[in-house]
Amino acid sequence: MSEVTTAPVLTSKDFATDQEVRWCPGCGDYSILAQVQKVMPTLGIPRENIVIISGIGCSSRFPYYMNTYGMHSIHGRATAVASGLKASRPELSVWIVTGDGDGLSIGGNHTIHLLRRNFDVNVLLFNNQIYGLTKGQYSPTSEAHKVTKSSPMGSIDHPFNPLALALGADATFVARSMDRDPKHLQSMLQRANAHKGASFLEIYQNCNIFNDGAFEIYTEKGTKAQETLFLEKGQPLLFGANKDKGIRLDGFTPKVVTIGEGFSADDCWIHDEHDMYKAQILVRIFDDVHMEGHLPRPFGVFYETSRPCYEDMMAAQIEEAKAKKPADLDKLLKGSEIWTIS
């Protein structure tokens, strides 16, 4: 009689390493690491089948602190390394940890092509709106007129909107969370993992040394209820401490209304995660000067759709090639366009 063995039940401690976690005291990265370590045991994936790949930056220390396989790669190229790994080992759960500097500056091109190709990987983009590792220069997401060491008179750059960029690259899963809302961040990590395709999760992360308080209005108790809008599938867009504020569409323009003053929750915009056109409006609720009034910042899943994954199509193409008759190498090298010169 053979003995039946069961896989051990893992906890967050099983995903922690013996390495000293070295970020500045108070950095938002500590919270993100803790939430990732809490979520991993719930996914039912063996540690040896999980890979964390990072680029360069404060966030890119992540692989050292996760008791999984991992790689600390080169600046902006974590997405390229992850693409190669997923293509060769499609059964692995691949997570890319990057930052607004790493993933949207030198790595911007790689990021958009990963998303359009739709590899089944998870991109966690930590956005602190600053270059932290290199000591406080403005980044691609820093607000206009930002005074830093590299822009002493204020940055004249127009900042990237990461989620709008992801939608423009035809990402199949686009979401946003924050370091100081552990439960919400955990739920978004689980949603990203469950998605079949490239998931892009922007995480607001406080850099308390070089850009402290950049997202304080969305995280502090006194302002969070009025300044944040948590998106729920099939539910009206409501916010406020008593859910007494709502958002409705006037044509294509979102406007804030007060529930009970001529409007009810039924009059408000109902969130549909599969509506690309409304997702485009939602990601632009970003202090957009073209929108009327002050709108809360949305968090949650903005958009999700289904599209074939690159690694699956590549595998199918390889099998199709194998099934054909042996190729004539000379004919293949010559190509299909041949000219005869007499």
Descriptive terms for the model:
single chain, 342 residues, alpha/beta, 30% helix, 17% strand
Secondary structure elements and their pairing?
Elements: H1 29-39, E1 50-54, H2 62-65, E2 69-72, H3 78-88, E3 93-99, H4 100-106, H5 108-117, E4 122-127, H6 162-168, E5 173-178, H7 182-194, E6 199-204, H8 216-219, H9 221-227, E7 228-230, E8 238-239, E9 245-250, E10 253-258, H10 276-283, E11 297-304, H11 310-323, H12 329-334
Parallel strand pairs: 1-2, 1-3, 3-4, 4-6, 5-6, 7-11
Antiparallel strand pairs: 5-11, 8-9, 9-10
CATH architecture of the domain at 12-219: 3-Layer(aba) Sandwich
Question: And the CATH topology of the domain at 12-219?
Answer: Rossmann fold
What is the mean predicted local confidence, pLDDT? 94
Structural class comes to alpha/beta
Radius of gyration based on Cα positions: 23 Å
Classify the helix fraction into a percent range: 25-40%
| Strand content range | 15-25%
List low-pLDDT spans.
none
Biggest sheet overview: 8 strands, mixed
- Give the H and E element order: HEHEHEHHEHEHEHHEEEEHEHH
How many beta strands in the DSSP annotation? 11
For the record, the CATH class of the domain at 12-219 is: Alpha Beta
Number of helices: 12
Distance between the termini: 79 Å
